Amino acid sequence: MSISSLQDKVAIITGCSSGIGLATTRLFLERGASVFGIDIGAQPQKLAEDFSTFTFYQTNLTESQAAEHAVAKCIGKHNRIDILVNCAGVSDGFSSADTIHDEELEKVMAINLTVPIHLMKACLPAMKEQKSGTIVNVASKASISGACSGLAYTASKHGLVGATKNVAWRFHQEGIRCNAVLPGGVPTNIASSVQMEHFDSAGFNAFFPVIQLHVSKDSEGAPVPIIGADDVARGIAFLSSDESKMINGAMIPIDNAWSTI
Ligand SMILES: NC(=O)c1ccc[n+]([C@@H]2O[C@H](COP(=O)([O-])OP(=O)(O)OC[C@H]3O[C@@H](n4cnc5c(N)ncnc54)[C@H](O)[C@@H]3O)[C@@H](O)[C@H]2O)c1
């Protein structure tokens, strides 16, 4: 049995088509889980070819009832849900309180905070009935810092750790755990989610020095992220496995000490 085995667990993973969600889905499948992957984007073709234990469900999770429908599909197929990983997310354009547009605020809050809450709500009846279940929310360094992202992303990720703690305490006597990982900068496709018409260069310039403290630099001084999607996936797998069975309500930074400042 491998470290942090997920053998025969049934996991829902959102954002499975790219970045951290894709790396997590592959790791879970390699460790024996059946994964019900959800994304607005296209199916990750290689995973579908490599693993018969992978099911893909394409939906825009911000649409009305989308979370409930997705969870019902998973239960229809597997009859249970052992693990929920809330990974789908988007970035903001570094807007501050003086520049933020409602459209960006609503989009970022909906995907990064409201959708994870809807999915937890939809999964909890099955987890309560089973008297077991593990939820991992993908938060961020921006969950504990006001100095590395825009207002919308920072508020959404602060909100997500509040939701994580609330769920952890509320259901800790029912065999259900809820934790969060707080990654540092990871090279993924998240920059493509920025609405460039709302990019705030003054905001970006205020936050960039803090980001630079964390990244490495190439020979020309350009920033190079040091945390890989696989590093975050391993943290999520640990928190999802029975190895962490007494870890509940924890915020685990995966950022090589960036969280200390
Ligand atoms: N990349 C980083 O530096 C970093 C750092 C800290 C936290 N995070 C968090 O990690 C998580 C994953 O991001 P990533 O960096 O892998 O980005 P990514 O863009 O590579 O992946 C995000 C995935 O979420 C999906 N998604 C977005 N909106 C959706 C919707 N409405 N419905 C369904 N799926 C949707 C996208 O299609 C995409 O496949 C996010 O929550 C992000 O905030 C990322």
TrEMBL record:
Keyword Oxidoreductase set for record: yes
SUPFAM superfamilies named in the record: NAD(P)-binding Rossmann-fold domains (SSF51735)
CDD domains on file: SDR_c (cd05233)
InterPro entries per record: NAD(P)-bd_dom_sf, SDR_fam
Protein's UniProt keywords contain Iron: no
Name the record gives this protein: NAD(P)-binding protein
Coiled coil: none
Top-level taxon in the UniProt lineage: Eukaryota
Gene Ontology terms for molecular function: oxidoreductase activity
Family: Belongs to the short-chain dehydrogenases/reductases (SDR) family.
Species annotation: Decorospora gaudefroyi
Keywords: NADP, Oxidoreductase
